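Researcher: Go.
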Amino acid sequence: MDNPWFYYPETIAGHIAALDEASAKHAVQVLRLKEGDTIHLTNGAGLLHTATIQAAGKKQCSVQIISTEERARQTHRQVAMAISPLKNTSRFEWFLEKATELGVAEIFPIISHRTVREHFRQERLQTICVSAMLQSQQTWLPTLHKPQSYEQLIAQQSANSPQRYHHRWIAHCMHSEKHHLVQAVKTGMQDSLLLIGPEGDFTETEVMTAEAEGFVAVSLGDTRLRTETAGVVAASLLCLLP
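Model: Structure:
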């Protein structure tokens, strides 16, 4: 059985660390771990600590760090997804889980003209990302940004912005000339940002605005996909294609 993984974002000073109450409870009461058992800790920014449990209490659990290594991202490029939140929050949560498992680096929830706005539970959604990272045994947690308007996101990607991605695409369902994303992705691309619209798609004005800032229109196939499905298909291609 693999040693269990825990999220530990704080800096570890020395060789002793104390798990937070929720992690300690899960380790001791759920997983039944005891003194001497080995676990892994990651800070979600590439570090992986191997540790042994020193003291196992119901609310407190201290561990001793045995070794530390720094791991590179598992994807060929830094992948960012800008995607509209959904009225059915469980579908958006599913997307976040799968995007994290695939290795997406940044997720931008964008409010476009046709987005049906619902309460955005940042803390819950962040927890879903953490759980997916640990389950897939990765050391990189995607940055989940707070929701912003479509216009703000496009402005961030303007020619003079330091946050600008070099390779930027917008996926939409309108009838126009566009290549499949598979054809757009080229070997050696260091980063990429893809926009996915809400149910009902982007408006024609939104597509034109993105294209004016250098975004290239792409297709994800001949079938019309749900927003979360389109997001997972695109994330899979961007993360897995060489």
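Model: The mean pLDDT is 95.
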